Amino acid sequence: MTVNGRARWTCRTQVASVAAGDCLEIAPLNNLPVVKDLVTDMSRFFDKWAQAKGQFQGARSRREDFARVKPDSPQRRAVDAAIECIGCGVCYSSCDVVAWNPDYLGPAALNRAWTLVSDVRDTARTARLAAVAGDAGCHACHTHMSCSERCPKHITPTAGIAGLKRAAAAAALRGEL
Amino acid sequence: MSSRSETLLWIAQRASAAVLALGVVVHLATIIHAVRGGLSAAEILGRTHGNYGWFAFYAVFVAAVSIHAPIGLRTIVAETWGWRGAALDALTLATGIALALWGWRAVFAVFG
Amino acid sequence: MNNDFRARNHPAYWAFIVHRASGLLLSVFLPFHFWALGQALAGAAALDGFLRWTEQPLVKIAETGLVLLLAAHLTGGVRLLMLEFLAWRGWQQGLLAVAAGLSLAVGLVFALNVV
């Protein structure tokens, strides 16, 4: 919900920590259609997740050996920093670009795409970069960093989106995009 | 706009930004130095006319600005008024061309 | 309902506002700048006429403002380039303070030289 104007993970927020005096203002999450009272329709939020190709695509089957991924490699560290997303929508609600550009995929979807672009086992990298580099994709992020300010899991979607910008640029220059 | 075009625009904007970063530092330092003790046209033009080194520098400077500014304005127009597609691209291109022509005219005026 | 001041009141957001506003204002200024310099085509006398006009105190204040805008846009832009191109690090947050400080310094140097 929005509490005192800021999106919060309300089931984990103590009233005492946010009440100014004995007053509290609660509202539904921004940037989402309101169903009723404090309930919002999050379909669009998750649709954009799918549009950003936020699903893992692997090449191995259960009959093959496990993939070996070094936990301290730079790519895996990048994935680990962004993987704990709970899909709460606080970042999406806090993002002004989502408000200004209704098609903008948003920080959560792009963050998830980043974890997959950095996943060495994933095979859909080119298609995913094409999905996130359009005019409502990673380039629409203006580094406001409201997402990173508000994320209850302390993820920095801005960093992941910057990574997507770099990856898309490299792919475009190599002629892969 | 396709992902490829959008990405190339981003690259162009950041690359021109890097060029401008260096250019602006030089420009500011030069202007601050030149402004000391007052300016007169004869003084300025005496130093700049026929100075092909600075001519080249500012010609590149104008080119970089003509790439950088329109792409930035494009974003503002798209986000403030919701423009998309051909109209937006035409505006961007027109702004770039106008800045380039006016800018190179000024460079020629001062350094030619 | 849109995010209001309470949601937007944090440093990286102010940096965005400064960057967008300065970029817009500089873009509006640029054609005038090119026109003024183009006066040199009409000879030194035409340029001198314009330069005399700029001697007014209000214009000098405006010029200092412009230099501040340029320095702010430059330092903010360099901060953005570092955030986008370098792998993410903690110290990058402090870049904002550096950017602000540097741009103010440049503005001051210009003002002191021009006054």
In short:
Chain B has 112 residues and is mostly helical. Chain B contains 4 helices and no strands. Chains in contact: A-B, A-C, B-C.
Give a quick set of tags describing it:
heterotrimer; A: 177 residues; mainly alpha; Fumarate Reductase Iron-sulfur Protein, Chain B, domain 2; two-stranded antiparallel ribbon; 9 helices; 5 strands; 41% helix; globular; C: 115 residues; 3 helical TM bundles of succinate and fumarate reductases; 5 helices; 79% helix
Write the layout of secondary structure elements.
The complex is a heterotrimer of chains A (about 180), B (about 110) and C (about 120).
Chain A: E1 2-3, E2 6-7, H1 15-18, E3 26-27, E4 34-36, E5 39-40, H2 43-51, H3 74-82, H4 90-94, H5 96-100, H6 107-117, H7 125-132, H8 146-150, H9 157-173
Chain B: H1 3-35, H2 41-48, H3 52-81, H4 85-111
Helix pairs in contact in B: 1-3, 3-4
Chain C: H1 5-8, H2 11-38, H3 44-53, H4 57-85, H5 95-114
Helix pairs in contact in C: 2-4, 4-5
Q: Can you describe this structure?
A:
The complex is a heterotrimer of chains A (177), B (112) and C (115). With 177 residues, chain A is mainly α. Chain A is built from 9 helices and 5 strands, in the order E-E-H-E-E-E-H-H-H-H-H-H-H-H. In chain A, strands 2-1-3 form a 3-stranded antiparallel beta sheet. In chain A, strands 4-5 form a two-stranded antiparallel ribbon. In chain A, strand 4 and strand 5 form a beta hairpin. In chain A, helix 6 packs antiparallel against helix 7, helix 6 crosses helix 9 and helix 7 crosses helix 9. Chain A is globular. By secondary structure, chain B is mostly helical. Chain B has a single domain, classed as Up-down Bundle (3 helical TM bundles of succinate and fumarate reductases), CATH 1.20.1300.10. In chain B, helix 1 packs across helix 3 and helix 3 packs antiparallel against helix 4. Chain C is mostly helical and 115 residues long. Chain C has a single domain, classed as 3 helical TM bundles of succinate and fumarate reductases. Helices cover 79% and strands 0% of the residues of chain C. In chain C, helix 2 crosses helix 4 and helix 4 runs antiparallel to helix 5. Chain C is elongated, with a radius of gyration of 18 Å. Chains in contact: A-B, A-C, B-C. Chains A and B meet through helix 7 and helix 9 of A and helix 1 and helix 3 of B.
